[in-house]
Amino acid sequence: MIQLEILSQDGSVLSGENKKHLSDTVLFYEGEYVPGNRIRISVETPGFYVISLEDTLGEEFVYFSSPVFEFNIPFEEARLSYNPRSFSGTRHLLHARPADSEEIGRTRNLARNVYDCHEDHSVFPHASANVETRGESVFAARNAIDGVICSWVHGNYPFGSWGINRRADAEWRLDFGRTIEADTLILTTRADFPHDSYWTEALVEFADNAGTVTDSMILKLKKTGDGQCFPLSGKTFSSLTLRNLKKADDESPFPALVQAEVIGRNMISGN
User: Fold this and answer.
1) Could you tell me where the beta strands, DSSP code E, fall in the chain?
2) Separation of alpha carbons 211 and 135, rounded Å
3) Which of 110, 118, 139, 232 could covalently link to 133 via disulfide, CB atoms 3.0 to 4.6 Å apart?
4) Do 76 and 116 lie in a common domain?
5) Where is 104: in which H helix or E strand?
6) Are residues 138 and 245 in the same domain?
7) Is the pLDDT reported for residue 57 higher than 80?
């Protein structure tokens, strides 16, 4: 069972009449979103699902670690990192379904989750950081896993990135909520030169479900807006952290991460 609902700020249900089509649960909401609205997805069991909360953002393959996920509709400054057409208008179509065995077993980018958010950490992958420049949405940790890779400018959609506000001890973490097996890590750093700087080196640490670091690698990075690939050779882990970021010796104080991709597969069977 999957239940989709639109909630008001006080938690009352504005729309919750779900329809079924094969394995899909579908909700059509006719109304304009207002501040405080949120989307709630309830599932019978934790596991792998495919969700679409906004048609301009599309479907996403995600892992539920608990049976309820709530997504706050972004407004004002929080909307700047999304497509300007997202969550607008008065006709909204949402759907969700359990992922099938082929989708669960497929080699894919396991880092991507356009619906990642600060407020709810029950759906994975989930990105977090110890700093986000001025707390602005266009520099949030989630931008590095939203699937949008435009590295040549900084700012509003589609140019969001993870910004570090000049912090020498900046760290970015990616949690998967389960154990994965990974072949390749791809990092795309921002290349709005000469406004931007870049990192020449980074440490990536891999941890298990208990948070214990099990392995690490030193990454050598270049001055480029292209994706930089690092082989992981089938490492198994539940989270990774980028730290010890060494900035290039140049005049700009603004290195940033546009996207992190982890190509691999799931280690557990599913729903």
Assistant:
1) 2-7, 13-15, 19-21, 24-30, 38-43, 47-52, 60-64, 68-72, 91-98, 108-109, 123-124, 126-129, 162-163, 172-189, 199-207, 213-220, 228-247, 256-266
2) 26
3) 139
4) no
5) helix 101-105
6) yes
7) yes
Do the Cβ atoms of 150 and 258 come closer than 8 Å?
yes
**Average pLDDT over every residue of 179-198:** 98
Q: What is the pLDDT of residue 193?
A: 98
Residue 71 CB partners (closer than 8 Å, separation 6+): 38, 39, 40, 41, 53, 115, 117, 119, 120
Is there a single domain that holds both residue 99 and residue 180? no
Phi and psi (nearest 5°) for 165? 50, 35
Distance of CA 110 to the CA centre of its chain: 10
CB distance 86 to 75 below 8 Å: no
Residue 11 CB neighbours (<10 A): 10
The boundaries of the domain holding residue 254 are 108-266
User: Structure pTM?
Assistant: 0.96
Closest by CA to 184, choosing from 106, 261, 104, 268, is 261
Over residues 107-127, the pLDDT tens digits come to 999 999 999 999 999 999 999
Question: Is the predicted pLDDT of residue 268 greater than 80, yes or no?
Answer: no
Q: Would you state the pLDDT for residue 270?
A: 54
Q: How many CB atoms lie within 10 A of CB 169?
A: 10
DSSP states along 128-159: EES--GGG-GGG-GGGGGSS----S--SSTT-
